[in-house]
């Protein structure tokens, strides 16, 4: 049974290989434009900055250079139940400079399409054991992000040689470039 987390809660990840599943449903857009939410991964060192540009994993760079982080591809619609996008993590391959993995979801062309996370519901991040497929933990975003166009769902970080997950749930009015500016 998965541990259900609240915002700010932290929990150890005892599986060296796991899958991050991200899911959401969108309300019918009043603008008539389809929603395209994108998961991005920022792989950072102790300085809270990308280890190198190639350690930014997203729909145009699906794998980190060390092979530890792999995005399974962009879901353009978010239709259907379950995970809308997945990221596979293998901590046994992680570059020694890495101490944090930040998971962000942005709305593609949110400003042009007049879309925000207030129009998104049932958002969650879950971590499942890669071997068994069983959920280890899950965090459901329950806040109404009515002006935010990007949300940091959670982060995986290393403390005392152990990996932990923190349920962040922090929204930002901005997009992928704003996170790149923050973490680069």
Automatic annotation (TrEMBL):
Keywords: Tellurium resistance. InterPro entries: Stress/Tellurium_Resist (IPR051324), TerD (IPR003325). Residues 1-183 form the TerD domain. CDD domains: TerD_like. Gene3D superfamilies: sav2460 like domains. GO terms for biological process: response to tellurium ion. Belongs to the CAPAB/TerDEXZ family. This is TerD family protein. It comes from Mucilaginibacter gilvus.
